[in-house]
Amino acid sequence: MTTRSEHLLAIRPVITSAKIYDSMSSDELFQNKTLRPIIKMQHDLFIAVFRNYINKHKNVFYELSLSKQLAYIDNAIHKDMKFRNSIKGMIIGQFTTEEYAIYIQNSSALNKRMMHIVKERLIDSIQVFIDPQFLAAI
Fold first, then answer.
1. SS (HEC) of 35-104
2. Cα 59–Cα 82–Cα 28 angle in degrees, nearest 5
3. Which residue has the higher pLDDT, 18 or 52?
4. Closest Cα partner for 5 from 95, 109, 100, 117?
5. pTM, whole model, 2 decimals?
6. pLDDT at residue 68 is higher than 90
7. How far is CA 95 from the centre of its chain?
């Protein structure tokens, strides 16, 4: 019988550019072996969640300049604790029990790494956050 951990590991994407070295810190190793694949796998969900976040905040995001949109993403990730905790839950929920045991040993530093990666992925995908009204007008 296949275990939950085996299922979770089997569905994760392989990131060939995420290198693993003996000289890496344990946090960097965890980031490359666990966090990056999970965050990549959850990317479409993070896009949908951020679109919902924009909608719940009265779509002001769409009225902002590009630089202010980038600051908006940063603020959502770093300052809005409810949103931040929701994102963390989507990532932690994909941990195996063994990974969770590693995570809780240094959760503060790993949370920072997690949020930084998610923020960068949202910023890299800024073009998908086009105002739906603008698209309807085209």
1. HHHHHHHCHHHHHHHHHHHHHHCCCHHHHCCHHHHHHHHHHHHHCCHHHHHHHHHHHHCCCCHHHHHHHC
2. 110
3. 52
4. 95
5. 0.91
6. yes
7. 14
